[in-house]
Amino acid sequence: MKTWKLEPLEQGKYNHSDNGAGGKYDGKLVLRPSSLDSYIRCPYSFYKQQILGEYGRPNSASQVGTALHFVMEEAIGAKLEGKELSVDDMQRVGVKAWRSYNEKSEVVFHGEQTYQSMANDLYAGVLGLAEALTCVDAVGSESRHSAKIDGHPLFSAMSGSLDVEIPDGVVDLKFTGKKKSNPKDYLLQQSSYAMLRELNGHNTDRLQILNVVRPTKAAKAKADKDGIELVANWHILEMSPNIPYVQHWVDIILNKTEAYAKFEGTVDEKQDFAELLFQGTSPSNSFLCNNTWCSHYTTCPHVEALRDAEKFEEVEMFGAKL
Question: Of 31, 166, 195, 209, whose Cβ has the fewest other Cβ atoms within 10 Å?
């Protein structure tokens, strides 16, 4: 397998924009640490989003998480300037950000969520985040580290924005549903940040996930019964960087996307090749493979193939009974 060498890219040389997956650099696409996770979860979804730029609507949980990211950025920024945001200030920042995101795009509600339950989750999340940030020794916020990719037909750089930098590593905020996260689920993305930092001369020994957990129905009911404020649980999860693991998946992705870019044929032939090259996952292998979490689910050829296979098995079983 071909190994791709990434070179340091000085901050300021790549100006991130909201154009596509991670903006453009030198006229080509930019690979993001989060897109590596996207590829592992479902290569076909990666292809639709990162290569074709077909993005779906954000779901309700992700919008609350995005608002919490904005709250953390503002709170850390104030702290680095010798100021401090009160919890009330943080709530106002969160609500403003959340409303802004809701105005920009239609929300896909997850499960039994409503706008009111989202507001409750945001309020509880801010209270939990305010507690958690007292344990974070921040030295920077929303800094970007990038690396050049030479010779690839589609991607020219890899770049990631870090939520928080600490003296010897990074902290990334994750807002998750109902239970504490497993650090292994984030090892690839977080190690990608470590690789980008180290390429640009910053030692990275520690990776932390600041995991704010969405309150359960039982916790909400108890808080209502006791007449107390509902505060989201939070955890700081530790892990060590695994840069060879990142290089392995970067090589796989860059080699496959290079093969796709160099394929010569008709539009239909290239689409067929892409569907073979970027095989999708299945509902049995991923809880994200459904119409709630994946905007490509209803048109995914791999899901459709599974449906056809199930129909065929049902016909075979019916015939056997006859």
Answer: 166
